[in-house]
Amino acid sequence: MSTETVDGRTDTRNALQRLRASPFLSELLSNRLALIGIAIIATMVAVALYSRVTMDVGAISASQLSNNPADQFLSPRAQYPFGTDIQARGIFDRVLYGAWYAMQFGTVTVGSSTVLGVTLGTIAAYYSELTDNVIMRTMDVLLAFPSLLLALALVAILPEEWGLWRATLALTLVYTPRFARVVRGAALKVLEDEYIEATEALGASDPRVLVRHIMPNTLAPITVQSTLNFGLAIIDLAALSFLGFGAEPGTPTWGIMLSQGVDQGLLSGYWWWSFFPGLFLAVTVLGFNLLGDGMRDALDPRMREAVD
Amino acid sequence: MISRRFLLKRLLLLVPVLFGVATFVFAMLHLAPGDPARLIAGRRAPDAFVQQVRTELGLNRPVYVQYGEFLLDVVRFDFGKSYQIQKGAPVSEILEARFPVTLELAVLGQLTGIALGIPLGVLSAVKQDSLTDHLTRIGALTGISVPIFWSGPILIMVFGVMLGWLPTFGRIATTYTYESVTHMILIDTLLSGNPAAFVSAARHMLLPVLVIGIYSMALISRMMRSSMLEVIRQDYMRTARAKGQGANITVMKHGFQNALIPVITVIGIQFGTLLGGAILTETVFSINGVGTLLVEAINNSDYPVVQGTVLLFALLFTLVNLGVDVTYSYLDPRIEQ
Amino acid sequence: MPRNGNIDRRRFLKAAGGAAVATTVAGCQGAGSNDGGTATETTSGEETSGDTDTESGDEGGSGTLTYARGNDSGTLDPQATSSGEDAKVIQQLYDQVIEFAPGKTTLQAGLAKEFELEGTTATLTLREGATFHNGEEFTSADFEATYRRFLDEEYEYFVGADTRSYYGPYLLSVVKTVNTPDDYTVELELKEKHAPMLRNLAVFAFGMISKSAIESSDPLRKNPVGTGPFQFESWSESDGQIRLSRYADHWGTKAKVSEVVFTEITENSSRAQSLNAGSVDIIDGLDAQTTSTIENSGNAELVTTPGINVGYLAMNMARREEFRSQKVRQAFNYAVDTQALVESIYSGLAVRANQPVPENMTGYNDDLDMYDRDVEKAKSLLQEAGYGDGFEIELATFRNPRTYNPSPSSAAQLVKSNLEEVGITTSIRTMEFNAFIEYTNTGKHDACFLGWMTDNADPDNFFYALLHPGVEEIPGGQDWVSFDAENFNTLNVAAWANPDYKQLVEEAQETYDKGTRAEKYKEAAKIAHDQAPWVFLDHAKELRGVNNRVSGFTIAPISGPYLNRVSVQ
If you classify domain C230-304+543-568 with CATH, what class do you get? Predict the structure, then answer.
């Protein structure tokens, strides 16, 4: 028993050491573009937290039209830096608050698909061929649809009162197979290494092997995949809003502001209505893509193949 | 060479996937909100009338019977009749008219992406870490970060409305007539022998193709760059260079071909994504492809059309992926193991 | 020219006048006596015959007219659709036995040169020599085949229960039998007296189809054979374009253009741009932002007419006890800012409402006040009703614009804020229209946005259709019924059941005298206004954008577009 524990620890340490010793972090930090990405993300997180703490979402969602009809469709000015919309609401505050929704729902979507995907992928890699087949063929079915199409199809059958959670759940299911595939690929590579076999021979129980050996070694590719997916999740959530499957109308999400602004404001010359939410959306997504791209380049080439 | 065994295995693997896809789509219809019979009968219809429609549709039968029948129909490419959008028309007929529109758009977008993405990727790799490289990469990443439903309307606004250079919607000016043979407008207008109609169609295509092309370019150039870099790092390249050949010639001669292999995968996988992305592009530019069809069908709860569209997409996507795998293993035989 | 092109003008006038005389003398109902009056009707008859005369010397039309709209057609079969988009093209291809006078709500002769309704019998005398696009003459056998294809499930060529539109059962179920004593006479026996009967025959869905086409194997969806002023040429679904050509042998007003193209341009803004640029001639489906660009363009003008529709917020009394209090319902009417709604959200494309019908309908009551926004009054009414602390509701709405609600999501946001100001916490539920209809038809909503566009321009089509409870007996002392009640009228999404109102609209349905009928509806309008089962929102205007090269276009609040009367330079 004691030998086993020592061995297990050594292996864990080895794995962690390898991660640290790998040029991943240093390479990432020397990548200027990735640093820009980090800066953008940090700013957006700050904006999100600031808005969440200081603003009342009810107040910035409510129509001001009945009490303040003259303020409808004002162009950007000192009082309203991003102008006002059809309901005479200031767009600036709403755009800032949109960062909170983007971060919140992006995190939930990516977080839950990561957890689901990692669990399924690890199980598939580790257990019998039958389990593997059942899980991975199911994933294949989900992967057989272009992502936005599958999301749309799922959204169509979920109850509309779920609002933004409907889109979140649909996208979680859409992204899960990607994580499962990445994790399974990475885990299989780890399993090929003899030390796991050695540990197993010594009688380590299943969960321990999973937690101690496989998880740490698949951490890097999962992080990369999550980062790249975060940007995608924000775009896709907005796209679903654009197509009409987002939150309750009036909610200050970028997707809803964008779609209403394009639909009802662009041609009349109220360009600010859609321009600012779109700009914030694009910059945030760019941030995640810059970071994700840099991370992928810094990744061990052997693992890189697994990430799409 | 590709072994027959590999091909057979891949084809066999398709069966459970496609079966799963069909089952998923069937379940979707039955989980969807709304009573199809009420939908067809309409708002003013009395209940007895709704009941009659339900019987006519066979919705009173047990689910497993309906499921079995559905599978049989799907195998024969029979997706039923539209409930709403083109009430009573066979879905396969609707798809036949709409799909080539999307295909044409996606193919042209993809070609644009390849034509721009590969040279940019090579350039970026050869001049690694130079300003050119950085700008290309930022450009590429921006390309995939900007949502089509934001950039599209802005392009329309600038080029269509403010500058008036390009038409902003649809596929051809209404003044032209042509015969729909392939439903791909560039080909059809060419066949009709009317150069002015062709020019009009091409001008209509420009913005949507560009929007898709930029997105595709971004992914391809990124992949091309990293793939190229990897090849350059490899030993035989160094050897070649040591032998005194100029760097550029070396790159062209040895590197390019090898670097292209993984890029083909990206192009293939991405093509499916492009078909999906057509949903947004078509919506933004008012083009009557399968993308707008799907959105319209969902908005009208026209489930047979939703089913047919989703199945068609899935089938295509799967086949494209298969094609990619086969091509890949042909180019890089190591894959087989 | 075929003989039908040269109808004797005097004979025609006599026919139209004859129907009018029948109205006054025999006390039975003739054309156009529902509203508008006999004078208008004679005028429109004259107009038609005048056009026929002018046309008789004309050899063919010239030019192509392009009509752009938001959606393509789904079918060209009049019996398979209830969609307004489909109707626009079907109107060009098919004629009804009775028609709406262009731009009016009155009736005029169509394929029937005379028509009258007396008691439970409607008699149609058909025009001789009117021909279908396949050259065959229209006779009573075609009428019978058209009728049977729509309503007779035993008929060999029945359209099919899963294809048929509800217009058949909805508008013609009162017909008991159809008799055709000779080639040019049709008699409809009704189950009971039914004032809107003749109007129902003028709905586009009863376009007369050739019997031989009905019996052929070519599906009518894409092979229309009617008698209309235009005949079918081609349909490109991938471009959303339908081409029609002038039918030279049309019996009535012959087309002035040689070709009509219906083209789909989904985006409102794109449609308006094309109009301004002159690449299309007429557009519909305009919204606030597009109207301003048309007004400023100089190349096109905006034509408008009051629409025959109503938009409302229905309060479901069956589901929410709070709504069973008249004070609560009135409080809602005072809380909602309809002024801001029609002016700032609908950008003046609609006028405010205070009763079920718009001003141009029989039975509109001038004496009723608007519910002007009054937050204090709303609050005190809620207080009196015992809901001073407010309550929570869900407001169901639909995603895509409708005529009577051009901006449902913005409207919902405004109403939500208005209601919250008086203490009603509101959540908005947005759905696809079809799912929404099912949701509200089954009474799952607390409150919902809804509206109605007329089928036949008859007040019955508002008063009875939308607010009659459907049930035989209203449970005593109650002014609402359950959605589960037998024969409940599912269109009455407020579940409102007022006995006096019910009585009035039932009587009006069987009243053929115009004046008496109008009085009954006015009284019903007052009850609806005071009892307030709805928050009365708006009546939307009909709007079209017309390029300056087009002349002769009449905007029609019902039926149409009358493209045979239009010419292009």
Answer: alpha beta
Q: Residue C45 has what pLDDT?
A: 35
Per the CB < 8 Å rule, is A262 touching B226? no
Q: What DSSP string describes C295-356?
A: HHHSSEEEEEEE-SEEEEEEE-TTT-GGGGSHHHHHHHHHHS-HHHIIIIISTTSEEE-SSS
* Nearest C-alpha neighbor of C560 from the set C68, C272, C203: C203
AA letter at C313: L
At B63, the amino acid letter reads V
| pLDDT tens profile B281-303 | 988 888 888 988 988 888 888 88
Please give the residue range of the domain that contains residue A76: 31-307
- The CA-CA-CA angle for residues C343, C345, C347, to 5°, reads 50
Side chain identity at B72, as an amino acid letter? L
A53 within 8 A of A240, measured Cβ to Cβ: no
Query: Tokens 């991405």 map to which residue?
Result: B270
Residue B12 CB-density burial (10 A; 0-12 exposed, 13-18 middle, 19+ buried): exposed
In a domain, B116, yes or no: yes
- As given in the structure block, the two tokens for residue A51 are 């808005």
Q: Which of B21, B31, B99, B150 to mutate to test the interface with A (most CBs of A within 10 A)?
A: B150
- Determine the average pLDDT of the residues in B180-209: 85
Nearest-by-Cβ selection for A282 from B21, B147, B318: B147
Chain B positions in Cβ-Cβ contact with residue C435 (cut-off 8 Å): 33-34, 301
List the single residue in B81, B174, B300 with the smallest CB-CB distance to C263: B174
Query: For residue A169, which of A233, A232, A225 has the smallest C-alpha distance?
Result: A233
CA distance C329 to C314: 10
Residues 150-209 of A with CB under 8 A from B: 152-153, 156-157, 159-160
The partner residues of A38 in beta bridges, in order of sequence, read none
Q: A270 CA to chain C: closest CA distance, Å?
A: 10
Judge whether residue B267 has pLDDT over 90.
Answer: no
CB C102 within 8 A of CB C565: yes
Cβ–Cβ contact B163 with C under 8 A: no
Average pLDDT for chain A: 84
* CATH architecture group of domain C14-54+81-215: Alpha-Beta Complex (3.90)
C-alpha separations of B289 from B91, B278, B286 in Å: 14, 8, 9
User: Would you say residue B81 lies in a domain?
Assistant: no
Q: How many domains does chain B have?
A: 2
HSE-CB at A226 with a 13 A cutoff on CA atoms is 20
Distance from CA of A244 to the nearest CA of C (A): 7
Percent of chain C clearing pLDDT 70 (strictly above): 89
Same domain? For B64 and B127 the reply is no
* Cβ separation C428–A63 shorter than 8 A: no
- pTM over 0.90? The answer is no
CA distance B167 to chain C (A): 9
Higher pLDDT, B266 or C541: C541
Residue A6 lies in a domain: no
Say if residue B198 is in the same domain as residue B141: yes
Size of interface A-B (CB pairs under 8 A): 128
Residue A307 · residue A228 · CB < 8 Å: yes
CATH of domain C309-541: 3.10.105.10
User: Is the residue at A169 inside a domain?
Assistant: yes
ipTM: 0.84
Record the tokens describing residue A141, joined without a space. Answer: 């079915």
Domain assignment present for B160: yes
CATH number at residue A49: 1.10.3720.10
Q: What is the mean pLDDT of residues B133-161?
A: 88
Q: pLDDT tens digits, residue range A177-219?
A: 989 988 888 888 777 765 566 666 666 556 666 677 777 777 8
Whether A7 is covered by a domain: the verdict is no
Rounded distance between C-alpha atoms, residue B276 and residue B272, angstroms: 6
Q: Are residues B99 and B70 in the same domain?
A: no
Parent domain of B313: 94-336
